[in-house]
Design a protein that fits this description.
Helix content: 40-55%
Structural class: alpha/beta
Low-confidence stretches: none
Number of strands: 9
Number of domains: 1
Largest sheet: 7 strands, parallel
Strand order of the largest sheet: 1-4-5-6-7-8-9
Number of helices: 17
């Protein structure tokens, strides 16, 4: 039997739609918190295949999602390039900022695949352990989003450092982006080689750039990545998630070559249906706060989304990741609501 998630990515409609959730493995699950305590640091969890496999499978065993997404992090790429990356409890990712030519020169793609070999071992093991109905998604951060962390040094609200960098010295910034494009192609290619059946590119900070810069630093790098992957795996589905892109979802969907787009919470589904390429699969886009709220409010929001997606292939997901305060029981209700519903 074909996997529903992959069928939709290949342009078929399924009723009810397949479902998986961004950040479906994580801190809202007690079994994750228990394993996390054993692993040591967060990167240790990502780089220990036995742990990463188990964390990936936990939500599949609990909920029976139609797809499992590799448990890893977008910042393994700068870690592989040689940047100092750590995760601090209560703070999140902390990186030694890359803000000048000397810092850029210290980065090297030479050791990326060796450094990230445990990630590919995790993918290969998952492909063997997942059941016949569950698809396996690999992923990476898009170069612009990864560069945001590399230059800001941590999560940012204003992005002043990276925007100043790329406005002031586009040539040097372009060198960094070229390196990230190359590393991202290698990283996603290795996941596909290991057995990933679909890939998702997370452009989490797409919405912070003006149009011209969006085209230069979001569209073009992703277009290069997708083109390189297609040359080797022409039929491999690739989902793009340009969070916050607004009206720029249209050129993103039309020009990057992605197979499908994941919609953030702010995107009107009727607008997307009217403006995105005909027949392109869409993924999304329940507000994660509905998952926190639960109850009739969540059920009604699910009804609206499913009802709005009758004209094109649809994968049910959130408009962003599962919040750590989410009740596992509410996720169960969401899955039941989807599985018992038809458009």
């Amino acid at each position: 039997m074909a996997k529903a998630f992959l069928e939709v990515l290949n342009g078929e409609r399924r009723d009810p739609p397949p479902i998986w959730l961004m950040r479906q493995a994580g801190r809202y699950l007690p079994e994750y918190r228990e394993l996390r305590a054993k692993a040591g640091g967060f990167l240790d969890l990502c780089y220990t295949p036995d742990f990463a496999v188990e964390v990936t499978i936990q939500p599949i065993e609990r909920y029976g999602f139609d797809a499992a997404i590799l448990f890893s992090d977008i910042l393994v790429v700068p870690d592989g390039l040689g940047q100092d990356v750590s995760f601090v409890e209560g703070t999140g990712p902390v990186l030694e900022p890359v803000r000048d030519a000397e810092a850029v020169s210290r980065l090297s793609i030479d050791g990326v695949l060796a450094k990230l070999a445990p990630v590919y071992e995790t993918v290969a093991t998952l492909r063997q352990r997942l059941g016949p109905d569950t698809a396996l998604i690999g992923f990476a951060g898009a170069p612009w989003t990864v560069a945001c962390y590399m230059i800001e040094g941590r999560t940012s609200r204003d992005f002043h450092n990276i925007k100043s960098f790329c406005y002031r010295d586009p040539e040097l910034f372009g060198q960094l982006m070229d390196l990230l494009v190359e590393a991202t192609i290698a990283h996603l290619s290795a996941q596909a080689e290991a057995g990933a059946e679909a890939l998702q590119i997370f452009e989490s900070h797409a919405g912070v750039l003006p149009e011209e810069e969006f085209r230069t630093w979001v569209l073009e790098p992703i277009k290069r990545i997708v083109s390189a992957l297609r040359a080797r795996w022409p039929d491999l589905p690739i989902i793009g998630f340009p969070r916050g892109a607004g009206a720029m979802y249209v050129p993103f969907a039309a020009e990057t070559g992605v197979s499908a787009v994941s919609l953030d919470t702010t995107v009107s589904l009727s607008w997307a249906d009217a403006n995105l390429p005909a027949g392109m699969p869409i993924q999304g886009n329940l507000d994660p706060v509905y998952l926190l709220t639960g109850g009739d409010a969540m059920d009604a929001a699910v009804d609206r989304i499913v009802g709005a997606c009758v004209n094109r292939p649809h994968i049910f997901n959130l408009g962003h990741g599962v919040d750590k305060q989410t009740s596992p029981d509410t996720v169960s209700r969401l899955v039941d609501c989807i599985r018992n519903k038809t458009a």
